[in-house]
Amino acid sequence: MLQGEQDIYANTPNWFYYWRKGGVVSDLETYDFRFATSTPQGHEVRYGRFEPPSGLYVGPLAGSPQTVNHTFQNKYYNTKLTTGENGINDSLIFPAQNYWNVPRQPDDAILIPKDYGEPHAVAIVPGDDGILYTQPWPDDQRIQIDGVWVITTGADGILNISDWAKDPRDRYMKYVYDGREVEMGLGRGRPGTIAIAPGIDGWLDLYWYPGGDDQVMEDANNLQDLRLNHSYVASWDALEVCAITCVHELEHKRHHDDRTAAQQAHPGMIVDLDDDTVITINEGEDHYFLNCYIRDTYDVASELGNPDYSYYGDSEFLCRMSEMNYSDPNGLVTEGKIGPQQDWSKGGRQWRKY
Ligand SMILES: [Zn+2]
Predict the structure, then answer these.
(1) Closest CA to 90 of 112, 119, 118, 114
(2) How many angstroms separate the alpha carbon of residue 320 from the centre of ligand 1?
(3) Could you give the maximum distance between any two Cα atoms of the chain, in Å?
(4) Is residue 343 pLDDT above 80, yes or no?
(5) CA 128 to each of CA 144, 169, 170, 210, 235: distance values in angstroms, whole numbers, following the listed order
(6) If you measure from the C-alpha of residue 160 to the centroid of ligand 1, how many angstroms do you get, rounded to a whole number?
(7) Helix (H) or strand (E) holding 304
(8) What's the CA-to-centroid distance between 78 and ligand 1, angstroms?
(9) Centroid of ligand 1 to alpha carbon of 251 (angstroms)
(10) Pseudo-torsion of CA 181, 186, 187, 188, nearest 10°?
(11) Interval between CA 50 and ligand 1 midpoint (Å)
């Protein structure tokens, strides 16, 4: 080992030494990737990590085979937001203001304001005897529907009657939500009501993400539209995983560098409205229909089971797509950095030749 190399190769696995030192995965040396199980900032490194401004790392799993099988679906185009199980709209749309290079103004229809539910939804119904005993209070209303007296949520869409004020002979209304029966209760509204609908442009322009337990309508997703559905399906050997990890982390770095450059070119302006590290002009119809107001357009956080991605899901989505060498005309084309014929490692494709 040469002078000065100890720091780079101390406590690293053989595969990292060979693949970097031998130029097998040329990005490792070109971009000075280091092997680490955690970064100096304390983040765990599993496959890889980009630590701004320039730290590039691969971790122990970058040297093992990997299979992925996911479909990423755009959750915020031609769909609607519902109040979720609690029946209350917990979400805001993005404030309409003039920003640098804004592609469109938020124009969503707010059907139910934040912190409210569906007005006059049935909340308390009579028991077996068909007679309603509970008195409405405070803004809940007693009305007759098809000859039956019921209590509704009133104008605010929230059931305000507390348990002690409800006559035990009456019962709370039950609604089917997400395949289950959900009972109305104090402080709740009708579950699954549409709260926010997109304007004519089709984009749902929430303020970064749905709030509380609000949900986008899954059945509104167009599964046939290939602009909005992207497969992430592959089976890679260890060498490929290492190469792909480099591609992925370099893509994160590119997003970061693009944002820094845009910020320097436009001082005092917001270049990344949703703060997901993908700048606003790189989101939109030409870019996988990424939503410039929403951090995780494809809900990568849920699909991949990592809540961290809710903060920078659009960046993560693009990095995953770069792994696929995607050739979708709407997509970014990233040249793969894979050279399996060069694999020198023990058990690798060249091993027996030496
Ligand atoms: Zn990533």
Answers:
(1) 114
(2) 7
(3) 91
(4) no
(5) 17, 8, 8, 39, 59
(6) 45
(7) helix 300-304
(8) 27
(9) 9
(10) 10
(11) 8
Average the pLDDT over 258-271 and give the result. 93
| 22-75 pLDDT, tens digit each | 888 888 999 999 999 999 999 999 999 999 999 999 999 999 989 999 999 999
CB 280 within 8 A of CB 102: yes
Q: Does the pLDDT value for residue 330 go beyond 50?
A: no
Ion ligand 1: residue ranges with CB closer than 5 A: 316, 319
Residue 294 Cα to ligand 1 middle (Å): 17
Separation of CA 252 and ligand 1 centre (Å): 7
pLDDT number for residue 334: 34
172-221 pLDDT, tens per residue?
999 999 999 999 999 999 999 999 999 998 999 999 999 999 999 987 77
Q: How many CB atoms lie within 10 A of CB 237?
A: 15
pTM score of the predicted model? 0.86
CA 316 – ligand 1 centroid, Å: 5
> What tokens appear for 123 in the block?
């909340």
Tell me the C-alpha distance between 351 and 209, whole Å.
49
Q: How far is the CA of 52 from the centre of ligand 1 (A)?
A: 13
Mean pLDDT of 140-148: 93
Pull the structure tokens for residue 85. Answer: 């199980």
